[in-house]
Write a structure and sequence with these properties.
- With 259 residues, the chain is mainly α.
- Helix content is 54%, strand content 10%.
- α4 runs antiparallel to α5, α4 runs parallel beside α6 and α7 crosses α8.
- The two termini are 52 Å apart.
């Protein structure tokens, strides 16, 4: 049954007399109003669906600047399995500066014989699944070499091992990205792991390095104190599993291809 018919039936139940007289025009009007509302909600998206001409102009301008640093003898036509889906993706992500730059860098590198072996078709799909937060989180993670300390914190009943699920971010690295909180950064880290760019090693620790700064971080203490105020009859504490993460070889290759 269509939504229009469902609405019409509800009108019939509540106001049968009115419905008898106005069934056809009322149903048509409801459909028209719903259609106008839908179009109004979707219309802002038109600005983000770029035409081929607009995308082509962006690509030509963006790639031309990058080709200036590539010797002419190293320039080549990009492989279609990389260029075609990449340009298609740009038609609806070009407004996002962070992702746009990654796409253009990837395309330019695929046009260099010195770099094209570092470019893989799967990289287009990875960027397509990313949002700006993911790109910025990955950028920050790649600025550190080797293992990075991270904890998996929780608010718990003291000495009882019982925790409050989702009270803390799943993965806490001690920093955030502007405009985003520690929970959003944690979710981004999980996504980057699913993309295959980083390795999350739960309950593994490096040989050296203290976790005190993470376990005593003010953001986590603030959450703990909020729980204590909300549940004054309970003795609560912050517990944390010490873990590590690192950017793997695939992630390093992705970084090189998109820079």
């Amino acid at each position: 049954m269509s939504m229009e018919n469902k609405i019409a039936e509800e009108v019939a139940r509540v106001a049968p007399e009115i419905y008898k007289d106005l069934l056809k025009p009322a149903a048509g009007e409801v459909g028209s109003v719903a259609g106008r509302a839908t179009r109004a909600l979707l219309s802002p998206l038109r600005a983000f669906l770029w035409s081929w001409e607009k995308v082509e102009a962006l690509v030509v301008e963006g790639v031309s600047k990058r080709l200036e640093s590539i010797p002419e003898e190293h320039r080549k036509t990009p492989d279609p399995e990389i260029a075609v889906p990449l340009i298609q993706s740009l038609s609806y992500t070009a407004y996002n500066e962070t992702l746009r730059e990654m796409y253009l860098n990837l395309l330019a590198n695929s046009m260099s014989t010195a770099m094209d072996k570092s470019v893989h078709p799967s990289f287009v799909q990875i960027i397509r699944q990313m949002n700006a937060l993911d790109a910025k989180t990955f950028e920050k993670l790649t600025s550190v070499e080797g293992y990075q300390r991270v904890i998996n914190p929780n608010v718990a009943l003291k000495d009882q091992g019982q925790i409050f699920i989702s009270s803390m971010p799943e993965w806490f690295v001690g920093w955030t990205i502007d405009g985003h909180d520690i929970f959003e950064v944690s979710s981004s880290i999980v996504r980057l792991g699913k993309f295959g760019l980083i390795e999350l090693m739960y309950d593994r620790t490096p040989k050296n390095g203290s976790y005190d700064d993470l376990e005593g971080h003010q953001d986590l203490i603030a959450i703990l104190n909020a729980y204590r105020m909300d549940k004054p009859d309970m003795e609560l504490e912050l517990i944390a599993t010490r873990s590590v993460l690192y950017v793997n070889e695939y992630g390093k290759q992705f970084k090189l291809a998109c820079k």
